[in-house]
Amino acid sequence: MPSSIEKILSSDRLPSLPEVALRVVEIARSPDPDFMDLVETIRMDPAIAGRILKTANSALLGMRTRASSIESAVPRLGTTMVRALVLGFCLADSQKSKSVTLRTWYQRLWREALIQAATAEALAERQKGQVDPANWFLAGLLQDVGRLAMLSVCQDEYIENVLEKQGERAVLELEQEYFGFTHADVSAALCKKWNLDDSIVHAIGAHHADAHRMVPLRFVSGTSLVAGLITSGHIAEYLEEVSHNLGRSRQNFERLLLQVFALQANEVFRLLADIDSRVGEIAAAFSVDIGHTQPLESILADAQEVLSQIAVSSQLRLVNAHMQTDTQQPVKARPAGQESAQQAEQSRWTDPQSQTFSRQYLDQSLTATLQNVHDQRLPLGLLLIGMNDTLGDCTDPAGTGCEVLRSVANTLKMSVRVSDTVGRFSPGEFLVLMTDINVDMLHLVADHLYRRIEREAVREEHSADAPLCSIGAVFYQPDVSRPCTGPVLIKEVEKALQSARRSGQHNTEVIALENGKPVKLQFSKSTAERSVPESVGNAL
Fold first, then answer.
1. Whose CA, among 212, 334, 467, 480, lies 20 to 30 Å from 191?
2. Looking at residue 166, what DSSP letter applies?
3. C-alpha–C-alpha distance, residues 312 and 242, integer Å
4. Range(s) for CATH 3.30.70.270 in the chain?
5. Predicted structure pTM score
6. pLDDT tens digits, one per residue of 377-425
7. Residue 124 in contact with residue 131, Cβ under 8 Å?
8. Pairing assessment for the beta strands 421-426 and 380-387 based on DSSP bridges
9. Which residues are within 8 A (CB) of 143 and not within 5 positions of it... i.e. 6 or more apart?
């Protein structure tokens, strides 16, 4: 068994890159790459040249016009994408000679690698020109290449001591314990040996860093590649497991998607389904065997429902535990009958007209949530959505007032995370509690909710030209020395709503509590332009 990274890199079991691939990497590193030199290099291997031309014209890249020759395909693809394709082709070819015994493991590791590549590319595309999607695609593809290398060289030892035990303990921990180094170390060393960019080598070496530490107070321009690879790794693990564990947590990568890459909660499902479809296209382009996999869209929908029920159960437990320990109020006995325990408990706390949580529940939940965020030092966001129209009669289930109410409530529930709490605060107001959220994300959620309610919610005919709602928001970073209470936060979010209604502009206002005092935060419609006054940013 190799006792060092160097012995793995020098093992005759480790597939080596052909001369053409190494030369392509070298040309791509140049600040001013010579495309004709790149074309001539690729021409040295007709098989690679043919596959690049075929991929350039495939659905994977979606070019508007077909490339008729390698000379026209290479400049249009760009040096980074050509490099990614050549390395992908060469690494995929090395799998084809593997024994039947190893094939299942290679299929799984390649499937995860392609998920990581597709995820990294999709995240880069969302940054609209600030980073190179092809570069992120390559980094995602290679971030776990060390696992493929360790499987190739160590085979039985790696399967028995790492792959077959993963799930019980973290892969990195198992690798470090048995080998004395990890696949992240091997991946970085291989990429350095292949003369890849220092930025890729660094990001790959750090891609198992703590996801929570990557979440900034504010959105930043040009999000780091490390954050992209950390997110890609968590999503690959999730998509690999969700088919046999619908309740698999999405917390790690959902936090990064929302608070680093500025996705909305309702966009997460679509992103995961898009990544799943991209993986099939990449596998076809690389001619790599990832096993027979079924489309995950229906599975992801089922998982969304399971996670929603888990979140509700968790919220109910939090409130009930608080009532028993802090307020000493006894929890009422659950009624007997066909209802499950959770259904009965949820029904007790549900507003019958909007089918969101009731005001009684919100009061208890806010107190319990505040205690929880103080204990864990997590930021908290409150959104108060006030209807500007007269709802009319909300007692008649078939009336217009109830229809508007249910429409807005449904829009709210579909637009926030399953872990967020949505409740009816007053006859014409809804309150949303969001833990673990940064300042800019609260801005973005408020803006998104306002626009979606105005666009999608049912409204009365007489109010078609007037804004349907206004939104007030409060961002609170717990301060152990000066803890805030529920009534104080409610008072401030009500003030923010009143101010939003008076403004007559965007009908949204977000404030932060700095040393117990409210400070209005600057709001911009563009994510890239969002900012927080320096004093507030430093204090929070």
1. 212
2. B
3. 20
4. 349-539
5. 0.85
6. 889 999 999 987 655 556 666 666 788 888 899 999 999 998 899 999 9
7. yes
8. unpaired
9. 113, 116, 184, 187, 203, 204, 207, 229, 232, 233
